[in-house]
Amino acid sequence: MDQFKVMVPGQTIAPKTGSAAKPKPLISAKSEVYDRSNPSYPLLQSPREALTGFPLDSLGRINWVAVLERGLIAPRAEKRTRGSMRVWDREILMKNTRDMPWVRFPHRQHTEWLACSNCHPDPFVEKAGTNQVNMEEIFRGNYCGKCHDRVAFSVFLCERCHSVTHPDSPTRWW
Q1: 163: containing domain
Q2: Total tally of structural domains belonging to the chain
């Protein structure tokens, strides 16, 4: 049987072979991300060292909301100044989910480290009923999919968004 690979966001799953393949480093030695000639380069922590002890989600990836809530990181409002984030504590309930639990969108968790301009007016228009958000568009990288499955938690953690049960939805499906 020919070898095959199944792609899962963030990882590749391949059938087991006779010898375990060595995992590739996160950043290649040829990477141009870091200036290795900079005298401060040795002071940088490896991601593994820097992220040790951070809470994980059910897929084993870092749960950044929990990290923020526990005070393990403190996002900056500005690159060079000590301004504060403009946190907006308002939730939006999206009910067009068929038999899935409704989606609770928490502005607070987003605005604790993102400026409003990251999402408004693109990809979200600030007027109720104008954004035709659906899972197909999210999977295509639109709306929530601009960040989720890229720099934010996986779109396959359904319960993180579909968290408000209603009479037509199962109480727990994961």
Answers
A1: 85-174
A2: 1
